[in-house]
Design goal:
By secondary structure, the chain is an alpha+beta fold. Helix content is 27%, strand content 24%.
Length: 252
């Protein structure tokens, strides 16, 4: 007896469900799982943009089958910073400035913080002594929230680097960005806002803490990214990084 067996060719496709519509998930280095042998969706370097509902379909000559929707929720890194780690970020800022010539008035310093919202902590002409600036940094409160880097960059460029708030013609403008997560509010505007800032003559140094994906960080930083973008694995490593970053030029 001879038994013949024919296996139907089956195509497995994953979709992300957006506003009741479906967008196919393109399989690449970040997304895997469109084969019969390995149909489960695996997301590498998961990002906030991966939040959403996903559905899988399998199609062959016999018809189309569809799974129930699966919900993917990505945690927000910025909400887990906590007071202790936030203090380490402020200490890093103070280390960055400790050798700067602040008391002469040659260097102006301002700080904007951002989470879900944006807060101008102080403008570049609010304080003129090193001690006052350090005290002002220590007084910045920790605000629980998401990561709205785009509006932080926009506020910095449009409301801080102005003549009325301490900006001066002919003086280099430098920004140090500290972030523990990729943007999850207005994320599509983050890189364009950084590009606008750089086009306005603002030099950007970008420092990330614990980022698995540094593409946004590198894109925000001035070129070359190898000299202007830094990523450490923990808040404790900021103290080590400060020695490296202290060699950067500081002037606002």
């Amino acid at each position: 007896m001879c038994c013949g067996l024919e296996t139907l060719h089956t195509e497995v496709t994953w979709y992300r469900v957006i506003n009741r519509g479906r967008t196919e998930v393109e399989m690449n280095a970040d997304y895997r799982g469109s084969t019969v042998n390995a149909p489960s969706l695996t997301i590498n370097r998961v990002d906030f943009k991966d939040n959403g509902n996903y559905v899988c379909t399998a199609e062959n000559a016999a018809g189309v089958g569809s799974s129930e929707e699966t919900r993917v929720i990505v945690g927000l890194p910025s909400t887990s910073v906590g007071d202790a780690n936030y203090q380490k970020m402020k200490d890093f800022c103070k280390d960055f400035l400790k050798n700067a010539d602040l008391d002469s008035g040659n260097i102006h310093v301002g700080i904007v913080s951002y989470s879900t919202g944006v807060h101008i902590e102080f403008q570049m002409n609010d304080y003129s002594t090193s001690q006052d600036i350090m005290d002002a940094i220590d007084a910045i409160p920790y605000r629980y929230g998401s990561t709205n880097t785009a509006d932080g960059l926009k506020t910095m460029r449009s409301q801080m680097f102005t003549a009325a708030n301490g900006d001066r013609d002919g003086v280099p403008n430098v920004v140090l960005i500290l972030t523990d997560g990729v943007s999850n509010i207005n994320s599509r505007r983050t890189i364009p806002e950084a590009e606008q800032a750089r086009a306005a003559g603002i030099h950007i140094y970008a420092v990330g803490i614990g980022l698995r994906d540094t593409r946004e960080l590198d894109a925000m930083a001035s070129e070359p990214a190898s000299e202007n973008s830094f990523n450490v694995q923990s808040f404790d490593e900021l103290a080590v990084l400060s020695d490296q970053v202290l060699g950067l030029r500081v002037g606002c």
